[in-house]
Amino acid sequence: MRGEMKGPTMNALYSLLAVLAMVLAGIAGGQSEPARVALATFIPYAAFATLLVGFCWRVVRWALAPVPFHIPVTCGQQQSLPWIRSAKIDNPSTRWGVVSRMAAEILLFRSLFRNSRARLSGGRLILGDSAGLWLCSLAFHWALLLILLRHLRLFLEPVPAFVNALDRLDGYFQIGVPPLYLSDVILVGALAYLLFRRFRDPALRYLSLFSDYFALFLLLAIAATGILMRYFTRVDILSVKQFALSMAAFQPRAPQALGSLFLCHLLLVCALATYFPFSKLMHMGGVFLSPTRNLANNSRSRRHINPWNAPVKTHTYAEWEKEFRDRMQTAGIPLENETEDAGHARTN
Amino acid sequence: MPDTLVQIELKPPQGDWRDPHVEFRKGSICYSAAPKNLTALGLPNPRAWQPLDSDWKLPPDWKRIILDGMKERLQKYRSFRLFMDICVRCGACADKCHFYLGSSDPKNMPLARAELMRSIYRRYFTLTGRVFGSLFGGKLAGGRELTEDVIKEWFYYFYQCTECRRCSVFCPYGIDTAEITMMGRELLNLIGCNTNWVLEPAANCFRVGNHLGIQPHGFKDSLDFAADEAAEITGLNFEVPINRKGAEVLFVMPSADYFGTPHYYTLLGYLMLFREIGLDYTVSAYASEGGNFGLFSSHEMTKRLNAKIYEEAKRLGVKWILGGECGHMWRVLHQYMDTMNGPADFLDVPVSPITGTVFANARSTKMVHICEFTADLIHHGKLKLDPRRNDHWIATYHDSCNPARAMGLLEEPRSILRAVCRNFHEMPENTIREQTFCCGSGAGLGTDENLEMRLRGGFPRANAVKYVKQKHGVNLLTCICAIDKATLPTLLEYWVPGVEVAGVHELLGNALVMTGEKERVVDLRGEPFPAEAYAATTASEADHA
């Protein structure tokens, strides 16, 4: 068996082990008082400081690099003649068009929506629809956002009305006590699909890195510990809130009434926050800066400036005419400099 | 043609992508650039070598040059740094690449092509790569050591990408493999790893003025010949003004139009159009190339070659510039020219002298695409057209990559086609417009030594042509790209025999009823019109009389 373990499989295994190790660390840490204090005070602050500083540092680095050329990828008819209808969102020519395109990209995953699947059948290429990736990615991201917003009720007192409204909406179906959050189901389902895809698709399996599996396992572990706390071990939500409020007020008090599972959840979230700025998860900030998407297709109507536009060596008309003037004269092509001594020009 | 039939199948990838070893074999590589071309352009490390050699004669400090070059470009191009950082390897791009679909080589998946560069970026330019780079052989961090094998792998795969940008259309972050390929090629250029099919045209274009190195008198001969041919077909006099000062419009076309077939028929179409509307224009022997093989080499070379167009427009004192049918030429003209060599403040905002239409979309570059120009003429009813003269064609239209995905020039050529021919059928939706499949020979890969890979890469395009051939009896693939016109005939001959290739303005030339023309008996290819079309034309002439 060991001989058959390929690199890609190893990546999945190692990342699973890394996440499991963190789960164990969280559970073990819950057993000793000094570790509990560290887990509940020092580590979260360090993690979120890393996230904040790291995220900004990465975005600033991108922003500092100039966009020398105007390179939007256009996905529809350009704006040209008045009687030709242009694709105002997919091929924007105005600032508002760009805003719409970016909104469609960020809120609806427009580009991913185009996805198709190629297969060969009897020597023919067939391009079929493929909505799974788009649907599950979108579902995952929206569910995650909803869950993050729901967590605000732990950090804010009084709880803002919109958070309560989201909470009610999320538990709309009133299944079980406490009511099952739809977002939890969607998040886990979507993550499971994304993970399953990586294993099933040979091309993806071939290319997936440790970090690809790690992010998925980590998010799944966070979700799992959260779900266990809410629906099964029934964590004391008041203690959680007390702790969260003390953190938010920068007067952390290590929670007495909270068990290992909570600390485990917290540690995993801290791991995610720390990992975030060093990883591909930075696509969250990067997507806003992508020059193939966030520029209007107006490079012929408005000059794009390259800040480092350096002079280059060109072959000037004068140099060119000097070389070919005899032949041009014979062929009757007008010369710029009729009077120059032809003898000088014979260079080859 | 390759000895054995190219077999297309999608196989699951084998092995570990981090292994950079590539087997070079004839048929799927481009040969190295001749030293004379590197010297002519002042590029580093000119020497005799071939990709098939084991020793590539790299400069002794090649590794430092590459890493320094990467560092410089990471600072100069946001696209490069961003695209190195944010890919999540979702795989949406994987089966969008024509080379992957045609070759089943997993490193042709766009995300894999980018990973070839990204693994080096991670190892040498990220914190995790530098810290964990040597741990577990860099496996967990996804980094690789930069070795000579990696350089060879880069050469193989960055010259197996046509920079068509189809993958970018599907990428949720718009990661553009063309950008990464361009960076890869720039870096390879720094250590003298370049191909002759790119650098010889670039060197010719730089010194002589066009890819083929046709000197001014030869240029004039070609155009005079075309003028004679147009005269023979129509019975009218034609003259092509060269380097004429004070003309209103400078016309720039890809050099293949006056040298290649079937491009040449498109040139006849242009000449007939210009004569019929009485356009006050000139062509230039100095700026006798619209195409720009610098784009396939480096940004700097793009700028060096492109500079001639504005310089010549200024010297000749024209008011604006009109550009012919070409793909990558328009990538440069639309997205790079103004930035690189502008501002063109010595030119006027283009106005059609016939219709008075102001081309506001080109008010800064002052350069209009001929399809925009012609579509406007037709829309205003300025051309007398007899589409029956194209009844021998059942046409479809191939969106050339760059006009489609770097401009959005989709409807202009279609509106011309609908006006000039009566049998037109689109290929399936996900193979046209922004989702168009590349010919498989763009970005400097269209050389015969690379034929097997070209046929593989062109397979998805040919497959769609085959579909409309079987469904509608299509026998003509129209396009507006010189590389398409040069390479699609071979592709179709292999995959879909019986389908010809033509430019849009060839069909326009067929349909254009010119004032005072003689009874046309042959099309621009010199082939007799089918009897019924000919009869119809004659009848319509009688009606008008």
Description:
The complex is a heterodimer of chains A (about 350) and B (about 550). By secondary structure, chain A is mainly alpha-helical. Chain A folds into two domains: about 290 residues, Transmembrane di-heme cytochromes, Chain C (Fumarate Reductase Cytochrome B subunit), CATH 1.20.950.20; about 30 residues, no CATH class. Chain A is built from 15 helices and two strands. In chain A, strands 1-2 form a two-stranded antiparallel sheet. Chain A is elongated, with a radius of gyration of 29 Å. Chain B is mainly α. Chain B folds into three domains: about 160 residues, Fumarate Reductase Iron-sulfur Protein, Chain B, domain 2; about 180 residues, Glutathione S-transferase Yfyf (Class Pi), Chain A, domain 2, CATH 1.20.1050; about 160 residues, no CATH class. Helices cover about 45% and strands about 5% of the residues of chain B. Chain B is built from 22 helices and seven strands. Chain B has a four-stranded parallel beta sheet with strand order 2-1-3-4. In chain B, strand 3, helix 14 and strand 4 form a beta-alpha-beta unit. In chain B, helix 11 packs across helix 12 and helix 17 packs parallel to helix 21. The longest helix of chain B has 19 residues. The mean pLDDT of chain B is about 95. At the A-B interface, helix 1, helix 2, strand 1, strand 2 and helix 9 of A face helix 2, helix 3, helix 5, helix 8 and helix 11 of B.
